[in-house]
Design a protein that fits this description.
The chain has 231 residues and is mostly helical. It has eleven helices and four strands.
């Protein structure tokens, strides 16, 4: 729960900075027109540089769907339920928002008891278990977990020290960085879309010159190479 709240706090601080520095480029303060970050939008990627893994809510939902092929899971809907004040009710097999009427067991947890938000229950806790069982070298829990997650390890990999072994396990679990790539594809403007804004803000030369016009248009036929260096 504390980790989830810290993530919420970090996102809120980043969004405050976006609002602050967007004042000059947006005429109003409407959040709808600002590029604010929200995990449910798919523009937030959770990652660990030390262990080389990353995921978005959408890519994590896809992992769950792969691990449970017998269920007709709508990954897009599931991903949206993985952030915010959503709780999973096992009795009814439904996701319930805290503003809705919760069952007695869920409502106790929503107020700080045993029930956890979906991000904690479906993402943080399984991730913590992978770390704990691997670093703790607990074979009785480790191997059943591998089987459940569909992780296959070679004999020589099982002899690795805990941290290298953890890196291998996490790379098998998360696979390729599909979530990160999808986030870039869906939320970062292409060069043709973003060049106008970038050139208008950073180029100090004559914006009406043929060179600037070609840069703005991202014209590959330009015979002059322009490089933007930042520090």
């Amino acid at each position: 729960r504390d980790a989830y709240l810290k993530l919420c706090h970090t996102l809120a601080e980043v969004n405050d900075l976006i609002r602050e520095y967007s004042k000059h480029s947006h005429k109003d303060d409407d959040d709808a027109v600002l590029p604010l970050l929200h995990p449910s939008k798919g523009n937030v990627c959770f990652a660990s540089a030390s262990f080389a893994w990353s995921f978005t809510l959408q890519s994590f939902a896809a992992i769950y769907a792969d691990c449970h092929p017998d269920t007709s899971m709508n990954t897009a809907v599931f991903a949206r339920k993985l952030w915010g004040d959503y709780y999973y009710e096992r009795e009814s097999n439904t996701f319930v928002h805290s503003k809705q009427k919760l069952s007695s067991s869920t409502s106790k947890g929503a107020g700080g008891g045993g029930k956890k938000r979906t991000f904690v229950e479906f993402i943080l806790e399984p991730l913590y278990k992978i770390y704990a069982h691997t670093l703790g070298r607990d074979p009785q829990r480790l191997f059943p977990m591998f089987k459940q997650l569909g992780i296959a390890l070679k004999k020589q990999e099982l002899q690795l020290d805990p941290q290298p072994l953890l890196s291998v396990i996490l790379s098998r679990f998360f696979g390729a960085s599909k979530g990160f790539v999808s986030m870039i594809r869906d939320h970062i403007p292409s060069p043709q879309q973003g060049n106008r804004h970038k050139v208008m803000r950073t180029y100090c030369g004559d914006l009406t010159s043929p060179l600037a016009t070609r840069m703005i248009a991202c014209d590959s036929r330009c015979d002059t190479a322009m490089v933007n260096i930042t520090k």
